[in-house]
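TASK: fixed-backbone design
INPUT:
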C-alpha cells in the first residue's frame, strides 16, 4: 500500500499531475455552476408557464411543449443526452462547438427539467393571496409573478435546489464520454501514467466528498440566514400591525 501511495505522489507532484487536477476541477466547476444557472432559468420559465397555462391558450401550448421537454430529459440518461447533443444535434445543425460548451448546455438542459418541477411546487406553495395582492396594487400578472411570487418560490425551493446542484456536481463525472477533461478524467490520467488506479480513484472520491461537503455547508448557511430574515420580517409585521391597531 505504501508503494501505491508513493507512486501516486510521484505522479501527482513530481510529474505535475496536480495541474491536470486543477484544470479538471475548473471544468467541473464550469459545467456544474453554469449548467445550474441555465437550469434555474429554464426551469423557472417552464414552471411559470405551467402555472399560468390555464389563463391563455398560447401558454397552454407552450406548457405542452414544456411537458415533452421535461419528459425527454427526465426519461433519458445524461450520458445519452450528451452523446445525442454532441454527435447528432450540433452536427445536424452544422455547428462546431467546443466540447466543454456542449457539456454545459447539456447539463443545463437536463437540470432545467428537474428544476421546473421544483419551482412549480415552490410557486404552488406561495399563498394565492400574494399574487392577488400584487394585482390589486396595479401590477400586471407577469410583473406580480416575477416580483412577488417567484422570489418566495425560490426561497421555499432552496433545499431542493441545493440538492439539484449537488447532484449536478456528481453527474459531471460522465462528461468524459465526449472527451471533456473534468475532475474524473484528471485522476484517470494520473492512474494511466503509472498503471496504478487504486489510490487515484480513492483520492478522486475524497475530492467529490469535500466538494459536496462544502456545498452542503454553504446551502445550510444560506437557509439559516433566510430563516433569520423571515423571523425579522415577521416581527416587524407584527409591530406594524400593533401600531395600526393602537
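OUTPUT:
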Amino acid at each position: 500500500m505504501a508503494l501505491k501511495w508513493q507512486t501516486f505522489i510521484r505522479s501527482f507532484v513530481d510529474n505535475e499531475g496536480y495541474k491536470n487536477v486543477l484544470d479538471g476541477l475548473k471544468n467541473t466547476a464550469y459545467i456544474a455552476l453554469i449548467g445550474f444557472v441555465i437550469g434555474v432559468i429554464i426551469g423557472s420559465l417552464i414552471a411559470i408557464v405551467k402555472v399560468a397555462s390555464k389563463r391563455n391558450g398560447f401558454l397552454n401550448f407552450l406548457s405542452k411543449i414544456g411537458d415533452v421537454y421535461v419528459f425527454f430529459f427526465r426519461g433519458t440518461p445524461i450520458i445519452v443526452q450528451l452523446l445525442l447533443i454532441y454527435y447528432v444535434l450540433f452536427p445536424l445543425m452544422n455547428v462546431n462547438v467546443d466540447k466543454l460548451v456542449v457539456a454545459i448546455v447539456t447539463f443545463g438542459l437536463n437540470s432545467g427539467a428537474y428544476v421546473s418541477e421544483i419551482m412549480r411546487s415552490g410557486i404552488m406553495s406561495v399563498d394565492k393571496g400574494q399574487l392577488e395582492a400584487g394585482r390589486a396594487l396595479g401590477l400586471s400578472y407577469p410583473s406580480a409573478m416575477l416580483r412577488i411570487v417567484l422570489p418566495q418560490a425560490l426561497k421555499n425551493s432552496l433545499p431542493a435546489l441545493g440538492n439539484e446542484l449537488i447532484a449536478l456536481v456528481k453527474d459531471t463525472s460522465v462528461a468524459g464520454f465526449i472527451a471533456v477533461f473534468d475532475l474524473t478524467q484528471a485522476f484517470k490520467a494520473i492512474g494511466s501514467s503509472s498503471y496504478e488506479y487504486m489510490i487515484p480513484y480513492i483520492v478522486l472520491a475524497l475530492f467529490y466528498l469535500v466538494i459536496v461537503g462544502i456545498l452542503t455547508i454553504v446551502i445550510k448557511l444560506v437557509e439559516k440566514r433566510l430563516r433569520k430574515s423571515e423571523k425579522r420580517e415577521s416581527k416587524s409585521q407584527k409591530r406594524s400591525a400593533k401600531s395600526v391597531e393602537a
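COMMENT: The two ends are 76 Å apart (CA to CA).
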